[in-house]
Amino acid sequence: MKLYPAVILLFALFACNRPQLLKNNGSLPARMYSREVNDSFSIFIQLPEHYNKTNADKYPVVYLLDANLYFDIMAAVTRRYTEVGLLPDVILVGIGYRDFPTMDSLRNRDYTYPLAIPEYEMPVSGGADKFLAFINRELAPEIDRHYKTDSSKRVLMGHSLGGYFTAYALYRDITGTGPKFHGYVAASPSLHYNNYYLPKQIADYHIAADTIFASKAYFTFGGLEKSTDSGDVPRETLLRQLDSSNCMHYISFKGEMLSNLDHMDTGLPTFIKGMQLTLQMPR
Question: According to the model, what pLDDT value does residue 7 have?
Fold first, then answer.
């Protein structure tokens, strides 16, 4: 569940060469304190290239986890894909930590629920409910207050434990106990966490037949992922189980195996295709 040092170094070098304006090209502070979590987070924001405060346009908001690692490259990709018509204009909001070492430890605290079983040896864990409340009650309202957002089109994206948190947020949505996002994009989600706690919860939950959801979800795994990355249940089986569960019949769910990709390779292609699927763009 830790990030690979070589990947961290690569993105750290990339980040050193980007304009500081990319961190915050709006009025929000680069650091935001959360009363829900009792900690501060780094907030990275990219507005659409032709963002104009005076026109009537409103934009989808894409919330990206592990922003210290993924924000820079996703900001660049999003800008280029928008230019050629492969993505709509979006407000990209990255949620990160003070630095890479902090991210690599506190993501365990914020992206998991419930508390980790002892075999994981996680010093902190189980705070996904508080982190979700931070996004819903503190961050999203602040983004909506400062920018021209379409609050009906919020997309949440995460990889690995961030993918687990994305799946957890989806479960909270469909059970009516959490905020609603328009889209949920999970790359190689760590669904084996706590002996498949979350897939079991999803499988056991049944929704009333007259319930209507507008949510869309895109989950992926890499075809080359090692068993230690996803536990003992084959990844194809996990996707089939999710797809066949009562919960997923009420949303637009797509699960996909990305052949020839390993665990750390799935993030970027999943995020790109996930935005296209949830925001209904050509692909």
Answer: 47
Distance CA 10, CA 72 (A): 12
Q: Which of 177, 167, 267 is nearest to 217 (CA)?
A: 167
pLDDT digits (tens, 9 = 90+) for 232-270: 889 999 999 999 998 888 899 999 999 999 999 999 999
Other beta carbons within 10 Å of 187 = 30
How far apart are alpha carbons 7 and 70 in whole angstroms?
A: 11
Which residue type sits at 140?
A
Torsion of CA 54, 55, 58, 62, to 10 degrees: -60
- pLDDT exceeds cutoff 60 at 121: yes
CB within 8 Å of 126: residues ≥ 6 apart: 109, 112, 113, 114, 115, 116
The verdict on whether omega for the bond into residue 60 sits within 30 degrees of 0, i.e. cis, is no
Task: Calculate the alpha carbon distances from 211 to 135, 246, 252 in Å.
Answer: 25, 12, 14
First to last CA, the chain: 30
Q: What is the mean pLDDT of residues 167-176?
A: 95
